[in-house]
Write a structure and sequence with these properties.
- The chain is α/β, with parallel strands linked by helices.
- It has a single domain, classed as TIM Barrel (Alpha-Beta Barrel), CATH 3.20.20.
- The protein contains 12 helices and 8 strands.
- The protein has an 8-stranded parallel beta barrel with strand order 1-2-3-4-5-6-7-8, surrounded by 6 helices.
- α2 links the parallel β2 and β3.
- α1 packs parallel to α2 and α7 crosses α9.
- The relative contact order is 0.15.
- Bound molecules: phosphoenolpyruvate.
């Protein structure tokens, strides 16, 4: 179902104590000030259980992992399976963040496998797509995004696809302070929704949640989220401070 969502990707940040403080602050605030959209935090794996415990007491907070193994179980040192996430009541997981694609060489096929594993356990993939600066400058951004969607998600049947959230994150905007203009975001989101409509039909396309990510902050969130095809944000840096993340969550 299409929803307004803000998801905070903490990446590899915070001590356990700092992480717990942030989750506690967000839980407390949102319990008293219900946001219009859904709120998801994506802490490092070691803090998922703690965050999940808070979420179980909250009517607002949801928890997402940042990554999952493409395998079921076995001799894969250092990996975490979808089944393990489910065991902690984790219901969302980021897949294909550009940092995973770039620094860990994750391929489209691996990402498609990860999506399948998550869906096997009814965990919602937050599937990231987005072009590099070079690709945009060569006017190749639509082709890149199309290929990422087709290779990572379009093997799913309609029922499966209905459980996926998409995050459009232009790589040139991630952590750079250079945010996409509202027009650039809307243009790409509409394009993505159009591709989904071609493949799965208008109903599913209109029901798909498409988040924007890349230097979204309390100052620009409102104008980005005001666009018709932008359903919220995947937030990196600005999700690390409760005050900033709360302002973004209140930008709908
Ligand atoms: C991200 O890494 O998903 C992200 C959007 O980062 P930032 O908000 O810091 O650009």
């Amino acid at each position: 179902m299409r929803k307004n969502i803000v998801a905070g990707n903490w990446k590899m940040n915070k001590s356990f104590e700092q992480a717990e403080d942030l989750v506690a602050d967000l839980t407390e605030y949102f319990e008293e000030n219900k946001p219009k959209g859904e709120v998801i935090v994506c802490p490092p794996n070691l803090y998922l259980e703690m965050a999940s415990d808070y979420a179980s007491e909250s009517s607002v907070l949801n928890v997402s992992a940042q990554n999952v193994s493409e395998y079921d179980n076995g001799a894969y040192t250092g990996e975490i399976s979808a089944e393990m996430l489910k065991g902690l009541d984790i219901n969302h997981c980021i897949v294909g963040h550009s940092e995973r694609r770039q620094y860990f060489n994750e391929t489209d096929q691996q990402l498609a496998n990860k999506v399948d594993k998550l869906l096997d356990f009814s965990i919602i993939p937050i599937f990231c797509i987005g072009e590099s600066l070079e690709e945009r400058e060569k006017n190749n951004h639509f082709n890149v995004v199309k290929a990422q969607l087709e290779n990572g998600l379009f093997h799913l049947n309609s029922d499966e696809f209905s459980n996926v959230i998409i995050a459009y994150e232009p790589v040139w905007a991630i952590g750079t302070g250079v945010v996409a203009t509202p027009e650039q975001a809307q243009e790409m989101h509409a394009y993505i929704r159009g591709l989904i409509a071609e493949k799965y039909g208008n109903n599913i396309a209109n029901d798909t949640t498409i988040l924007y990510g890349g230097s979204c902050n309390p100052k620009n969130a409102k104008i980005l989220f005001a666009n018709k095809d932008v359903d919220g944000g995947l937030i990196g840096g600005a999700s690390l401070k409760a005050e900033d993340f709360i302002k973004i969550a209140e930008s709908f």
